[in-house]
Amino acid sequence: MDHDRYDDAYIRSILSQVRTIAIVGASANAARPSYLVMKYLSERGYAVYPVNPGQAGKTVVGLTFVATLKDVPVAIDMVDVFRAPEHVPAVLDEVLALEPRPKVLWTQLGVRNDEAAARAEAAGLSVVMNRCPKIEYGRLSGEIGWTGVNSRTISARKPVRLGQGVQRLSIAPRGPKV
Length: 178
Prior knowledge:
Order of helices and strands: HEHEEEEHEHEH
Largest sheet: 5 strands, parallel
């Protein structure tokens, strides 16, 4: 797979199918990007498990940190990595040791390790590198357009809302044609 560019359909498919996300390298500090990502994704209906051995047992925004991926109490669909590129192979080793195995390995902005990606794909995982699921979700759902950002996604269909508020839109297929 070409990890320089991803089709919107590929990203949408992943974000539509996964339900449980483990965030490796999550932070309890509200100023850190990983904190914002875990909070955002949990507010969009994903079951999020922050993974950070230094924060294990601590609860932040209703989410309880665990020390390792094997400590996540449910099957994981996607592992989102907030670690430097040189740490991705070790995270992948943990992912491949899980049973059942997660379906997706996602690495955050600035995190790319092509060797680990090739290993993950050879093991049957879908891989996304150097992207943020929060940004991709916001772009594909149309939420990011509320801030004036061009999402490159145009539709005449009414967006699907997630509960209350105009800025909580779903990545699910849009409502009936207008």
